Fold this protein.
Amino acid sequence: MGKSLQLFLGACLVVGLSGCGGSSAPAKTDTQVANDFFKSLRTQVSSIVKIDENGTNGFLNTEAENMAKELKNVTLNAALVKKYLDVIGQLISDSMDAGTSGGTKENVEEGRNVTVTKQLNFNWSYTITQNSKEIGKGNVKMPGDSMDLQLDADDSLSLILDGTFPLYTVDENPNSDKQQKAKANIVVSKQNYGALLDINELILQGDDNVTVKLSDIKSKVYYVENIKDINYTAFEGVKVDMSAGSYVYNGILTAASYVNNDTFNRNNGYLPEKIVYNGVIQNSATGAKLDGSLSMALLDVASMDLNMQKDSLQDLFAKITLTGDLERPSMPKTKVSLGYEYPKNAENKTVTFSYAYDKTSVKGKAVVNDKGNGVVTIDGSDGISAVIKLQDGDVVYGEVNSFVSRNGKKIGYFTERNGVPVILYNDGTFESLQ
């Protein structure tokens, strides 16, 4: 669908025309409206994204490359912190049950051992060693001498963590002694369904002084009789604050409506039907900012085969929307939205697009089946619209199938010249879409 997508975007440029000229200007023909503003609109869009292989980078391309460079040097391993926290928690729990003052687990990773030791006032210390060399240490504060939450008890469990952990796994870098810091304040309270896990704050600091702060992390923990016997966990939301180089990331991630799927091999098969992220990415050096929302709703969670679809989103039964405001130095705010919907048992996928910059606006919609057959419709400012018919992923050229109109009147149609898609207007002039 590459060729038709290129035409789709190019046509969006043509039809997204608005009354940018002064009101005192003479009336223009339909063709002049398209011709006069095509170059201006193309400049606007190409300043944001790179629209052809030989073109220069747009704003988003440049920012994405700069962010990638900044993040390339970021080293942070939250999964490794969790791995060692699970071991530390189990050692403390086993020591409480046995009434001992601590314990050790050897070879958590090859050559790495974890030891916990009971201190005063329900404090526990831990050390992580590799071949007898210390590579992590810290403290965990417990509320008492038990980690059990019984269904018939109105209990809560509070944990305070402050310590360091290895930055790399043994497989990644067996000789590194670099560490990452972690701080957390965690409360688990009994509920009628099980327990509510509330992490008030979790701070991870890795190499190069990059800091990630997660707060208001809430998850429902469903268990049978004891919090040690967890059925599944339903994550509900988290606030993210992160800084890396000149970029600052702030946002809120939420999830809802957990459903069981036999092909999902984590969390006892439970995963959310909908995930939403609202956030801001800002370049503190330039003042550039993207403020937007990304929403993904899976439309067939219970029966979809994740093993078949894990390598591709192309056939995912889902509804995905992306909306955002883009702010650039000395430029008007730009509003962009993208949408994708593919319901189960539906013949067609639907892709939507809208763009608004200053006085210019474009809306597009493509409804296409698996064979690449379908129709693209585009509506822009000044009454300009377009219809593009697709067959086997290619454009069906000609004034009957693919054409441009203004206020319902056809003013031209899509055709091809030397392999280049163009719009041939009724007055004999043409508009290239490349």
Summary: Helices lie at 2-15, 30-46, 59-72, 78-98, 306-309.
